[in-house]
Amino acid sequence: MDNSKNKKPGFWQRWLAKYRFVILNEETFEERFSYKLSRLNVFLTVSIIIVLLIATTFIVISRTPLKEYIPGYDSSEIRRQAIRNNYRLDSLQLALLRNQRYISSVNKVLRGDLDLEELETQAQLDTIQFDDAVGFSTSPADSLLRAEVAQDDKYNLSAAAGQTIPFVLFPPVSGTISQEFDSSLSHYAVDVVVPRNTPVKAAAEGNVVFASWTIETGYVVIIDHPFNIISVYKHNASLNVRQGDAVEPGQVIAVAGNTGTMTTGPHLHFELWSDGYALNPEEFIDFE
Predict the structure, then answer these.
(1) Nearest Cα residue to 208 out of 285, 282, 91, 106
(2) Of 25, 115, 165, 173, which cross-links 30 as Cys (Cβ 3.0–4.6 Å)?
């Protein structure tokens, strides 16, 4: 009995065994294409194709901007952009802090809620800096007196009489003035009687530094205009702007109403300030 016929082929024999790959016409069985191959040829061909694909992919990604889309890849341009963004964030934070302090100061001035102790401390600091510059000293009582006088001057008509506004102011509303500007009564505004839901317009261009609700004066809008001019609109029924918005002259910023505890009917309480001094709006605006 011949055992050579029953002997299994070895490993290399199986890999080197020749096979024929044939493509036939299904209807006529005509041979269209044939190719001799082995397992080793197929393995080498597939391996070479895979290596070429990997190498091509690596070259394309490493030599083109596609590498920036790979998660975790850190390019020099990304680092520079991150540094620039960090600087911008710091600048925005400082600007936001200054705006918050400015708005807080404006609110204190408009409410008359200024702390004399705070003024005294600030006055003493200013006095120390002034004394160092000119070479003489003053007493704490003198510093406090200066602070009180400076505070009173903010509501002094004679001090504000020389104030001018270098641009035209538009009437926020048209109506009858029910209460005029009177510093002796601490009424640093004019109250203009208007029908409910009358549009309230910006007196000039500027930026909204406050737009919110207060218990005493209802919905309030404060606009910071050029040349340190501030206009205030109180007792509104609703607001059409938000803090930070830029407004144009005559733009509708609110709707007149009767909100807040310190009101007796639909009207607009309008204030005008210049460098911290209260101005009589009737000297600059015709409300009739």
Answers:
(1) 106
(2) 25
